[in-house]
């Protein structure tokens, strides 16, 4: 996984939208556009730094819009978009990211699936990854009152986020500092970088006019679908000195038998997510017959399920895990389990529940022969993304 930075350019004034403040600070369905653009990347694995480029005169609006978000200290924009991007890249260079996603503040509806496609192209060896869409409308020109139709053949619309190997795009900005370009794909073209196109999305609208704002609000109002998934897992006890449960190692006089680390909590949660997106079960993705997974850390199973969820444009909104056993006692470890599951899923801990119950001495769990876990998840699928 590439260590990635997110760079959002928010230094413009956006006058075509109208209003008393720049468009990036105007509310879209009650939330500032800039904040929505930042939150579109929440939970994306590998993003370690978020750098925003802002207009110095807009500091008050910026602070209000991003309250509570974990960001690097903002940097001031320049006279042009190219200058602003370079300022952001220069600030990020001290952190030495391997990749950078450069995004317009006015595109608040970039989906997890789109972002994942850009990152995947970089991980597969591209220097640059650009979301592109074909031109659908007939194009016309009117030079001196003479109307002409322009061929659409070979014409494509570029979107953001545009992804780059950090050193490559930073070097390009330094080398071609005198060139004015409208996006960073043009800078990559000048530098001769290896560019990989990925599918853009019509819903990834750039808000420029009031019509764009109205379109985005309609998308937000009607796009969401909620699904529920359920998972269950059980393992027997064998001689040992610890168990793994919900990503936490707990000292115990027995251990759980399984091909991997036998973490029943994470297995149940993984199955619940896979079930919610119709992606089969854990055994299909990680067959117990494959020696590759012997003793494996079950966190990677859950990370895999989360990656599939994001590729489908989904977000985990709640996870509820119940551990069924007489021993070990779960209460002393509950907070650590919630924190670990939240870390693996890149989800706020407030959305993670870990509970425990016994079977009052009945059945295999009551006799101390093993333990079981069940999980229920709710996910949000953004149908327009």
What's the alpha carbon Rg, rounded to whole Å? 24 Å
CATH level 1 class label of the largest domain: Alpha Beta
Quote the beta fraction: 25-35%
CATH topology of the largest domain: Spore Coat Polysaccharide Biosynthesis Protein SpsA, Chain A
Spans where pLDDT lies below 50 across 5 or more residues: none
Taking all residues together, what is the mean pLDDT? 92
Any guess at the CATH architecture of the largest domain?
Answer: Alpha-Beta Complex
Q: How does the SSE layout of this entry go?
A:
Blueprint: E1 4-10, E2 27-28, E3 31-32, H1 33-39, E4 47-54, H2 59-65, E5 75-76, H3 81-92, E6 99-104, H4 112-123, E7 128-134, E8 139-143, E9 146-150, E10 156-158, E11 162-165, H5 166-175, H6 184-191, E12 195-199, H7 210-222, E13 224-239, E14 242-245, E15 248-251, E16 254-256, H8 264-276, H9 282-285, H10 299-311, E17 314-324, H11 334-345, E18 352-357, H12 363-366, E19 370-382
Parallel strand pairs: 1-4, 1-6, 4-5, 7-12, 17-18
Antiparallel strand pairs: 2-3, 6-11, 7-10, 7-11, 8-9, 13-16, 13-19, 14-15, 17-19
Helix pairs in contact: 3-5, 5-6, 8-10
């Amino acid at each position: 996984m590439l260590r990635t930075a997110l760079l959002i350019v928010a230094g413009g004034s956006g006058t075509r939208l109208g209003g008393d403040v720049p468009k990036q600070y105007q509310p879209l369905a009650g939330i500032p556009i800039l904040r929505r653009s930042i939150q579109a990347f929440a939970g994306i694995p590998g993003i370690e730094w978020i750098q925003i480029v802002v207009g110095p005169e807009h500091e008050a609006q910026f602070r209000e819009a991003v309250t509570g978000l974990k960001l690097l200290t903002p940097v001031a924009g320049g006279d042009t978009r190219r200058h602003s991007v370079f300022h952001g890249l220069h600030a990020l260079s001290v952190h030495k990211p391997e990749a950078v996603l450069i995004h317009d503040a006015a595109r608040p509806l970039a989906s997890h699936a789109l972002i994942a496609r850009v990152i995947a192209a970089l991980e597969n060896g591209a220097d640059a990854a650009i979301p592109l869409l074909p031109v659908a409308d007939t194009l016309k020109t009117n030079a001196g009152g003479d109307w002409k139709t322009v061929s659409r053949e070979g014409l494509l619309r570029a979107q953001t986020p545009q992804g780059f190997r950090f050193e490559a795009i930073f070097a390009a900005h330094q080398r071609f500092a005198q060139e004015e370009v409208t996006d960073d794909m043009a800078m990559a073209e000048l530098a001769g970088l290896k560019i990989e196109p990925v599918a853009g999305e019509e819903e990834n609208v750039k808000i420029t006019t009031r019509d764009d704002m109205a379109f985005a609000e309609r998308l937000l109002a009607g796009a969401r679908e909620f699904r529920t998934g359920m998972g269950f897992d059980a393992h027997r006890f064998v001689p040992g000195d610890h168990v793994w449960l919900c990503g936490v190692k707990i000292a115990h006089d027995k251990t759980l038998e399984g091909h991997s680390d036998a973490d029943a909590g994470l297995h149940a949660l993984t199955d619940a997510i896979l079930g919610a997106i119709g992606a089969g079960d854990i055994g299909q993705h990680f067959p117990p017959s494959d020696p590759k997974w012997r003793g494996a850390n079950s966190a990677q199973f859950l990370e895999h399920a989360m990656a599939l969820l994001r590729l489908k444009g989904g977000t985990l909104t709640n996870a509820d895990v119940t551990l069924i056993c007489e021993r070990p006692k779960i209460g002393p470890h509950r907070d650590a389990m919630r924190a670990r599951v939240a870390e693996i899923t890149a989800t706020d801990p407030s959305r993670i529940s870990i509970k425990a119950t016994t079977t009052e001495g009945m059945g295999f769990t009551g006799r101390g022969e093993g333990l079981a876990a069940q999980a229920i998840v709710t996910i949000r699928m953004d149908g327009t993304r």
